[in-house]
């Protein structure tokens, strides 16, 4: 659910991920590299539009904050909203990211930043049932067996800091600290199960309510 506009690139490193990122699986690790402030001023604006009233705007501003360029900043704002080919489904997704870099000494760099992202979805997704013998019911592709009161809300907040120092012998010391919190709220309903061709019965309504949060601190 994280907004990818906050990241400069995605690195996929194959191999034993435990050697690179702590406890993990043998298949590899995915490293998301955050965008960093640049020493030159730069403004990027991106606009896009698509079917079902899909709209998206991205604003990326970066540059030095003092004459010596020893303090630099970057801010990214993204906003997306639109509907779906499913009935009763719409999405709103605002996101904000900011980061500062300061050269404390020629060898020491301090980085602090924060991000905020929110997903507000009205309606819920779900597949269409079929007859028990596999035949299609002939329903429209936009049909969804949910309700307009269904919703999914997701919020992600994160603050981070890094202190990096380069030694004369080419060694480097880095200290990272991150605090992240996510909150999820979801109310949904759906129809599942095959339809008996003779009695036209069989599918069951299912639903649920989810309210959860998660906090992570790492150093």
Characterise this structure:
The protein has 219 residues and is mainly β. It is 2% helix and 60% strand. The protein is built from one helix and ten strands, in the order βαβββββββββ. It has one helix spanning 18-21, and strands at residues 7-14, 28-34, 42-50, 54-64, 71-83, 90-105, 108-122, 151-166, 172-192, 204-218. Strands 3-4-5-6-7-8-9-10 form an eight-stranded antiparallel β-sheet, with no helix packed on it. It has a two-stranded antiparallel ribbon with strand order 1-2. A hairpin with a 6-residue loop joins strand 4 (54-64) and strand 5. The longest helix is centred in the N-terminal third of the chain and has 4 residues, at 18-21. The protein is elongated, with a radius of gyration of 24 Å. The relative contact order is 0.13. The model has no long low-confidence stretch (mean pLDDT 91).
Task: Please outline the helices and strands.
Layout: E1 7-14, H1 18-21, E2 28-34, E3 42-50, E4 54-64, E5 71-83, E6 90-105, E7 108-122, E8 151-166, E9 172-192, E10 204-218
As a percent range, the share of strand residues is: over 45%
Q: Give the helix level as a range of percent.
A: under 10%
Biggest beta sheet summary: 8 strands, antiparallel
Query: Helix/strand-derived class?
Result: mainly beta
Write down how many β-strands occur, each being a DSSP E stretch of 2 or more residues: 10
Number of helices: 1
Give the termini distance in whole angstroms. 23 Å
Ranges where pLDDT stays below 50 over 5 or more residues in a row are none
- Average of pLDDT: 91
Describe the strand arrangement of the main beta sheet, using strand numbers.
3-4-5-6-7-8-9-10
Please tell me what the overall shape is.
elongated
Radius of gyration: 24 Å
Instruction: Give, in order, the helices and strands.
Output: EHEEEEEEEEE
